[in-house]
Amino acid sequence: MNRVLANTLTSPYPTTIQTSLESYALNVRYDPSGRFLAAGRQDGVAVIWDLDTKGQVRWLDGHVKMITSVDWSQNSRYVVTASKDWNVIIWDLASDTELPRRKATVRFDVPVVSASFHPKNSQILLVLTSFELWIVDLRSEYKGQYELAEVFDDSDEEGASQRARNGFATARFDPSGKHVFVGTTSGTLLVFNTRTKTMIARHRISGAGIIRGLVFHPSGRRLVTNSSDRVLRQFNLPVYAPPTADDEYIEQELEPTHRFHDPISKVAWHNMSYSPDGEWLAGGAADDAAHKIYIWDLAREGLLASTLDGGRELLTDVHWHPSKPSIASTTNLGSIFIWHCPTEERWGAFAGGFEEVDENIEYEEREDEFDIEDEAEIARRKMLEEEEDVDIDGMIEPATNGATNHIRPNGEDDEDTLWALDDPDDDVKGWKLKVISDDDDTMM
Amino acid sequence: MSITMDVDGDDYKPADDFSTTNDYEESPPQPPSSDGRDSVAPTALSPPPPPDSSAQTPAPVPQPKPDTPYRPNYKAHLMLSGHSRSIASVKFSPDGSMLASCAADKLVKLWDSETGDIIHTFEGHTEGVSDVAWSSNGDFLASASDDKTVRLWSMEDYTERKVLYGHTNFVFCVNFSPSSTLLASGGFDESVRVWDVSQGKTLKALPAHSDPVTAVTFNHDGTLIASCSMDGLIRIWDTESGQCLKTLADDDNPICSHIKFTPNSVFILASTQDSTIRLWKAQTSKCVKTYTGHSNRTYCISTDFAPGRKHIVSGSEDMKVYIWDLQTREIVQVLEGHRDVVLAVASHPTRPMIASAAMEKDLTIRIWIDQPMNGA
User: Of A120, A345, B49, B337, which sits 20 to 30 A from B93 (CA to CA)?
Assistant: First the structure.
């Protein structure tokens, strides 16, 4: 909204730290609206921060060991936390109580590495444990835990030996939710169909080593991998055909369109995140001396645009705001840094009708500028101008962070989408987080 | 009630019911002419027609033409008495079930908007109360008082939840952000303060104006704050950074007494003490509509969009409530009944209901309900 009024150009990526939140946080995620931050902590608590007030608004206390991942449902009502204590908990922030109600607790028999919501239905979860990958469906009609397993060509001897050492290192839904992408310890990228749970593709990525992380471009057509060879690779994804009855899959090598790395210090990466428009990529460096975020310009061939230096607290996670040039990063000492792009105070804004100019300009007087006009004529013209109808209800803004919500590549009526939308969750737009005022009044 | 209509149907005017208040634009009866549109503009500038002009009512037209704007027909419905001094503000709760009022008698009262019964009286302020505001989910009520505090009242148990200290002079206006996490207040210390509702602490103090701040409000998504002041300026602020983004000022700088964003936040409706209400387009700093006819020279009188958002409603110092058509700027109804200056008006969020309240000699809150004329 305010961008309509602020006519100064701001940088498309953040440049300095605006706030540091003391949180003992390990990992951090903005909610899709950009109003909140969820931070997972070492002690098993997840904290919800309100970015308007920079205050902690909810304290999700349910795990007894460190939180390994946090994720938000599409309208921010639910938060899923995964922990080393073998549990996955879904929290309902629309509940009135100070400790939000648990919508579900899913227990595994090994530590959980990550858990995320299906982008279109928060009752479908993707859970990666230390050894296995599960789709957990909480809908009554489909209820169950379905394991996703890599398919090997048994006739191939190499395949048999692979099976022994292949493990899953990271797993994500793509933005449409139709596919699950999995990075393996042997440098391959597997693609599963969410509905049928069958493997539909295996992509070998040469030289990558272990694929540790995956992040999707907001369009869903590209993805960046983080791997043990300390290179971030961006790929254009092929279009996957609907799964066939005989469980065929594509075996294909993918060539990266870009490789991002630091050729001098050769740092590894903790995480990466696209800007909302997908034009910029932020990489959180696993530097052992400084808190560094690299920003690459994808519109200009992936040129390094900036390196943000956040001081001596080492970086552990990074996440880009869903609509603004703002980034949240966590440190090994538990702080959350909110990076923003400061705007200069425009003093001209304090005086009505004044316009600030950067350079002197020669003023060109309009032909009739100082003509004396009949006052009645002016008033009459003003009256006529006011005849024009005004629209006080219609929104002027196009949705700013539309990419993920509005792109419907193949329409909404294909089988996979219909399956996901069947028995929709109650994560409806417009719910409000109840404001809880703390009773101990310290202001007195 | 009858309605007259131009022969070409371009426009139609209220008739006998409103003829006693003639200080608004009204075309004198015209001979049938083909250029009805041209006749509008000059008439608006000419002095008001003599009172008898509208008394000559031609044959009543039973039904307004479908393309003519809807004309409300508000009728007095309830009269609520309880305050013992001037009532400064009334506000409907977000679900419309309750009405909150505040007055110079230091009290904030809560009424049932259906029955007019009093639900609760909040006591706590040590001086008169100038403004009340509801949080968007109806959990809290905030009140601004001359005792230099803003108080937060919980609607769960009707208790005082927080006292916000920080203003150094009378607090005059208060409003919640759409998410209800923030509260903005303004007052005679010429500042605007932004508060964290859950902590009860000041987040920002904006040196906003050079005279008392008379109104402060958030836009629909909470990213902007607008404030207006007796210095005649309307300022728009960035909520996050607290920076001033824009200043709207009229040439003559009349004291600005109340502002409100349109539902889409494109425009700001501003009342000034030159008996004028203007609709400003925020982006271009241009006044796009002017509403006149009421009387406002002394007090900060509130203005609102009437239910249905097709009309503007405002109090007036001539003890009446005025309703204008948003687009044509004509007065479409005048509500009479109050016996003193009408300071406060409020529109029901869902139903065609208006509340108004007046000063010392009246001390009533009146609830008006629209009763469509042709029994529809």
Answer: B337
